[in-house]
Amino acid sequence: MRNRRAGLGSLLACTAVLAAVTTACGSDSGTSADGKIELTIATFNQFGYEELLKEYEAAHPNIKVSERKTGQAADHHKNLFTKMAAGSGLSDVEGVEEGYLSQVMTRAGQFNNLKEIGPNVDGRWLDWKTKSVTAKGGELIGYGTDIGPLAMCYRKDLLEAGGIPTDEAGIAATFATWDSYFAAGKQYAEKTGKAWFDSAAQIFNPMHNQAELGYFDKDDKLVIDSNGDKAIWGKVTAAVAQGQSAKLKAWTPEWETGFRESAFATKTCPAWLLGNIEKNSGPEHKGKWVVTGSFPDGGGNWGGSFLTVPKQSKHPKEAAELAAWLTAPEQQIKAFKAKNTFPSQLEALDNPELTESTNEYFGQQVGKLYAEQAKKVDVAQYKGPKDGQIQDDIVGPALLSVEQGTNADEAWKKVVEDAQKATK
So which residues are the signal peptide here (predicted)? Predict the structure, then answer.
């Protein structure tokens, strides 16, 4: 959905976009010819489970586990929802990425309540991580895997060229609020004639994600025209008009080239993005990018996944035990070391193997920094049934149209109208 992941660079260089795949589980009976219980787990991109599943099988000789991987989250979730509608074909454990979680939560009845069938793992996760996957009736639908705590990345040399102070106090002041961020961007654009950030959508989304409500209230009523997004829209599009946006759509070849060509000076960067920055910027810019925990208006989260156990599973108890084991702090640290998926478990966030890890490209202990950012988040944003569709298919394209010359007010009217049509 949000085409993310490439991780934390060097030690933190490939975060995961986690969870999902497409095939049916094991044999029709869920038991192999030699009597072993067969479980399948569906994941996407990199969860870091390859060696962990071997370890689990060694400790559970009566269990055989097959991991089915899909390259992209969008493909996995399309498959997931198709098989949910069909009533068959799901794996015993299905990964769900947070951008698709709202669609799963509206179908919570198709998933097992892990509080009932799984081991007691209360208190394992950051509170907001658990709340986001808890249904209105209190059912726990999934176990948390990774997260995407937000920080800000900036090119120190470019800020200095634009007259933006880069000492600790100066950076804290520049990134204190969105107003101070855009004020600095205006100064930078006027002085250098270059862009402050990569694209409007990459700024709007983190700003939107900081609110308690997404595009819907808790009764699943569309509130895009009254939840504060219009004010965010105004700030972002005003910055576009001032030349602060490089107008580079994320994940395109032009966007990737923009890093190497120093097309923008700052980048909102969840933990999983650091690997992209390193890859796209190239070795010639090693040491020029800096990560700061000073994030406008306090930070937030962008990304992460969960492991669920569909009611289609023939072995739900064993599937829940596998999912619980994979999401234990010990295993999540191993996954972090394997693929740099940033953990959501409280014990893992305090583990020296994470907090003392250094990203060579940035020259910083980014594990400690992002662990602190994760602990700053105190609320899981409520997302309605079509939250992801509105963000990806309506708001994002509309912001791009503004960058290409569409009047911002007219584009906003269309956003509201299209969102209303999509939810009828």
Answer: 1-19
Q: Which two tokens stand for residue 240?
A: 């576009």
Sign of CA dihedral 283, 285, 290, 295: negative
Read off the tokens for 140: 């726990």
pLDDT tens for residues 132-141? 999 989 999 9
- Residue corresponding to tokens 């693929």: 339
For residue 45, the model assigns a pLDDT of: 85
Distances (CA, A) of 34 to 55, 62, 403: 20, 9, 61
Task: Give per-residue pLDDT as tens, 73-93.
Answer: 889 999 999 999 999 999 999
Is-contact 404 201, C-beta < 8 A? no
10 pLDDT above the threshold of 80: no
The CATH number of domain 163-264+386-422 is 3.40.190.10: yes
- The one-letter amino acid code at 172 reads A
Pairing outcome for strands 93-97 and 289-292: unpaired
Contact 417, 261 (CB under 8 A): no
pLDDT tens digits along 210-242: 998 999 998 999 999 999 999 999 999 999 999
Closest CA to 296 of 422, 185, 140, 424: 185
Residue 385 corresponds to which tokens in the numbers above? 């049934």
Residues 143, 146, 151: CA angle, nearest 5 degrees: 140
The type of residue at 138 is G
- The residue behind tokens 């599009």 is 237
Class of domain 10-148+302-366 (CATH, top level): alpha beta
